[in-house]
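HUMAN: You are asked to prepare a plain-text protein record giving the amino acid sequence and the C-alpha cells, both parts labelled.

ASSISTANT:
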Amino acid sequence: MKNFEDFKAEFGEETEYNLDPKRLSDRDRLLNRCKERCLYLITDSEKTEQSLRTKLKKSGKYPDEIIDETMEFLKKYDYLNDLRYAEHLIRLYRGSKSLREIEQKLYQRGVDRETIKEAMQDFRETEGTESEMEAVRLQIRKKVRDVSAMTAEERRKLYASLMRKGFSYSVVTKALELDQQYE
C-alpha cells in the first residue's frame, strides 16, 4: 500500500493535496459519490460499461461528464472491462447455449460488437466447436428421447427449433448423425 511519501514522489511536491472531505468542491464530492456507487454496484457481479452508465443516468443524480470521468477511472484500474465480462459470459454459457445466442446476450447487455468479436475469436481458438456441439446435443436430448424413431415432421420441427436457438444447420445435422450412431 502506498503511503503519503510515495504519493508525493509520484505526483510531485508542488501539487496541492485536498484530502479533507469538508474542503472538497461540490463537483469532487459528486465525483467521489459516483465512483463509490459504481464500486458498490460491481462488488457482487461484473457489469458492462453500458449497464453502469444506464443505471447512473437513470438515477438522475450525476451529469454526463461525471459519469464519463468515473468510467475512465474504473477502466484505468481495471474494475470495468467489457472484454473480461464477455469472456466470462461465454465460459458461463458454453455447452448449454449456441454461440449466436451468447453473442446476442452480450449485445443486449451493452457490449460493443468489436469486443464481442474479439472474445468469440479467443474462445473459438481455445475451445473450437466442441462446446457448441455439446450444447446442441444437450438441446436435442431435452426435446427427443430417441432420435432414430423420429418422423420426418418431428425432425423438421426439431431442426427449426434448434436453428431458432442459434445453432447452424450443419452443427445440428452433425449432432443428429452422432446421436443416431450412438443409439
In short: The chain has a mean pLDDT of 84. The two ends are 61 Å apart (CA to CA). Residues 26-44 form the longest helix (19 residues). The chain is about 70% helix and 0% strand.
